[in-house]
Every structure is written in structure tokens, then in C-alpha cells.
Amino acid sequence: MAVRVGVLGATGAVGQRLIQLLDPHPDFEIAALTASEDSAGKSYRQAAKWRVEGPIPEDVAETTVSATDPDEVPDDIDLIFSSLPSSVGSEVEPAFCEAGYVMSSNSSNARMADDVPLVIPEVNADHLDLLEVQRDERGWDGAMVKNPNCSTITFVPTLAALAEYGLEKVHVATLQAVSGAGYDGVSSMEIIDNAIPYIGSEEDKLETESRKLLGEFDGAELSHNSVEVAASCNRIPTIDGHLENVWVETAEELSAEGAADAMASYPSLELRSSPDQLIHVFDEPDRPQPRLDRSLGDGMAVAAGGLRESSFGLQYNCLAHNTIRGAAGASVLNGELLLENGYL
Ligand SMILES: NC(=O)c1ccc[n+]([C@@H]2O[C@H](COP(=O)([O-])OP(=O)(O)OC[C@H]3O[C@@H](n4cnc5c(N)ncnc54)[C@H](OP(=O)(O)O)[C@@H]3O)[C@@H](O)[C@H]2O)c1
After folding, report:
1. Ligand 1 in contact with 6 (CB < 6 A)?
2. Residue 139 region, left (φ>0) first, then alpha (ψ -120 to 50), else beta?
3. Burial (0-12, 13-18, 19+ Cβ within 10 Å), 218
4. CATH 3.40.50.720 residue spans of the chain
5. For ligand 1, is residue 330 a contact (CB within 6 Å)?
6. Is the entire prediction scored with pTM above 0.70?
7. CATH topology for 150-321?
8. Tens-place pLDDT, residues 80-95
9. Which candidate in 2, 58, 92, 243 could, as Cys together with 29 as Cys, close a disulfide (CB 3.0–4.6 Å)?
10. What CATH number belongs to 3-148+327-340?
11. Residue having the nearest C-alpha atom to atom 28 of ligand 1
């Protein structure tokens, strides 16, 4: 029997991707949609202004959108996906968990809390057991797992593939798509014919979330990885797909060929939304590119290319689809991990 799920922030850029991924999902059945007070009471079709490629799922289109409040959501929902603005999530998400709902959230609030697992299943699935600590500490029947920021998800799998060489320093410069800012994020007058070398709070997210993801969980506490990460974030006029330039210094000598092998052979998982191959490594020097490569593995794969040894260590480029692998798909994958691990 399918797990009944609710989506908080269902009308937004990530919320619409969640609907697109959850509607045909064999294990999940959409049973509740929420958004702001402005959308509450409207049909999803009216409230969402569907902007994702492909048609709005007809069986969801006439569902009435509720206000984002645990009392407005049916009790028999087993799993909540959240894609709320973080200012809203920080108020509302704990109320849902306290009311007994298990949640897979994409919002940035609480990602760095000591008792909140921040998970990319292929990288640190074992961190999910931090939920036991969370339940003990907070007294919740529910639980909250987070996925990282979209630009963090893009480069961390490549670092995980290189971890055996001893990660010491990482520099990363991002070229991020406009969908990462949400529908109302960047106006066309700001971004067309332009690049903006600033994305509020983004650099800190790459620098801190990556160390948490690559850290060790001993069953009681999580220690963060000691790798030093410095990030520089830029918004560019692509629609979807974050491209990143990465420089990595490792304790052990690492050739471009060794790095390519480590990335290409880094294992995927057998969860429903896992891509067959997690990291695609291109030999062509001008790949990956957002338009050409963001849909690899149905948008759930990471692409890497341009690997070479430089005076700053190994250098390469990587790319992922920011609203699928970087957001909605990441939350769905964490939902599948919760299901596989008996949390639902
Ligand atoms: N876009 C990305 O690539 C991306 C990637 C990773 C993480 N994220 C994170 O995902 C979250 C959502 O981002 P987004 O890009 O989807 O934003 P968005 O397009 O602005 O959508 C925001 C959603 O939250 C709802 N909402 C806004 N204010 C609310 C309130 N006071 N109470 C209840 N619901 C409210 C909106 O409903 P209405 O339609 O009714 O206003 C809408 O459904 C953010 O935390 C963002 O940082 C986004």
C-alpha cells in the first residue's frame, strides 16, 4: 500500500517539482497540499500557476490547497515533504514533527542543528540514525531529516568519491541557475545579459553543510569533517542546473586519472529515485554544460569533467540539476531512505 504524503509549500518552484516527482511515484500517494494563506482554499491548479515543463498532473490539479498548519492536514499522513521558505519552515516544521509527522525537508532552517540529520543517501545514509537522538532530545513522535542546499549537493558527491585520498582544502566557485532563487527570486531585468557575484548566505552553506555531510556519526554524536572549504557563489542566466568549478588539495597524491576513476566508480544506491550511475565523468573538455547535462539520470545524477592536475591540486567542473537532484529529488530520495529504514 502506498505511503500517504503531504507537501508543504506545494505551489513553489521546488513544491511543483515535488508534485511532478511524487504524482507517478509507486510508493507515495499525494494526500495533502499546503501553501500560504493566499493560496489556501484554492484548487492546486489556480494556486500553483504551473511552471514546470510537462502538464500539471490532472489528479492533483483539483485538490484544494490548505493553510500550512498541522491542524489542517489529515492525521493519517505518514510522511511530509517540506519546501517552505526557511523563515516559515523554522516556525512551522517543528510544529508538524511535534504533532507526530515524519518530515523530509528541503528548507535551509535547522540543517546545521546537531540533532538533525543532513543527508545525501549515497554519501551519508548512516547519519539518518541521528533521528533516534533527535527523538530522545526533543520528545517528538515525528522526526525531521534535511537535504542540503542545491549547490552543496552538486559538489559533495564528487568530494565523497575522493575522500579516501584525504581531503584537506577545497575551493569552489559556482555558476547557479535562476530557478535556485525561486519564482520571485531574481527579476529578468537583473539577470538577462548579466551575472551576479553574490547569493545571500549561499557561501556559508557550501562551506558548513559540506563538512557536516562528510562527517562521522558514532551512534550518539556527529563530528564534522576537518576539510577546509572556501566558496564563491555567482548567479547566471540559466534556468536550471548549477555548474561549479572545484579545486581540491588532498593528503595523498591524486592524479586526474585516479580522480576520474574514483568518481565514475562511486556507487549509487538501489532506492527508487537513485540514478544507475551517480557521477558521470566526461572526457570532453567542454562538458558538463547545464543545458546538455542537467537531465542525466532523470535529473538525479551529478556530472563531472575537465579533470586536471594544477598548482592548486586537482581541478574539475561539476554540475547537477538544482531543483531535482538539488532540491525536490533530494527530498524524495530521503523519503525513500526513511521508508527503507522503517521510519514510516
Ligand atoms: N529553488 C531551488 O532550487 C532550491 C534548492 C534548494 C533548496 N531550496 C529551498 O526550498 C525552499 C522553497 O524554495 P522555492 O524556490 O520553491 O520557493 P518559492 O518558489 O518562493 O515557493 C515558496 C513556497 O512556500 C509557500 N509559502 C510562502 N510563504 C508562506 C507562508 N507564510 N506560509 C506557508 N507557506 C508559505 C509558497 O506558497 P504561495 O504560493 O501560497 O505563496 C510556496 O508554496 C526554500 O527554503 C529554498 O531555500 C530551493
Report:
1. no
2. left
3. exposed
4. 3-148+327-340
5. no
6. yes
7. Dihydrodipicolinate Reductase; domain 2 (3.30.360)
8. 999 999 999 999 999 9
9. 2
10. 3.40.50.720
11. 36
> How many A from CA of 84 to the centre of ligand 1?
4
In short, whether 12's Cβ falls inside 6 Å of ligand 1 is: yes
**Residue written as grid cell 576537518:** 226
28 backbone dihedrals φ, ψ, rounded to 5°? -120, 145
Rounded CA-CA distance 330/278 in Å is 13
Could you tell me if 3 and 29 are in contact, meaning their C-beta atoms sit under 8 angstroms apart? yes
DSSP letter string over 139-194?
--SSEEEE---HHHHHHHHHHHHHGGG-EEEEEEEEEE-GGGG-TTSS-HHHHTT-
* Residues 6 or more apart in contact with residue 126 via CB below 8 angstroms: 217
**Nearest alpha-carbon partner for 227 in 243, 242, 240, 210:** 210
C-alpha cell at 52: 514546470
Q: Please tell me the residue having the least CA distance from ligand 1 atom 19.
A: 12
User: Is 242 designated active site?
Assistant: yes
Q: Which residue has the cell 558527491?
A: 157
At residue 230, the 3 state secondary structure works out as strand
Whether 99 contacts 70, CB under 8 Å:
yes
Mean pLDDT by 10 residues, the chain (344 residues): 96 95 98 98 96 94 97 95 97 97 97 98 98 97 97 98 98 97 91 97 98 97 98 97 98 97 98 98 97 98 97 96 97 98 96
Q: Where in the chain is the domain with CATH 3.30.360.10?
A: 150-321
∠ Cα 278 281 285 (to 5°):
150
How far, in Å, CA of 227 to CA of 51, rounded?
Answer: 39
| 127 in catalytic set | no
Q: How much distance in Å is there from the Cα of 50 to the middle of ligand 1?
A: 14
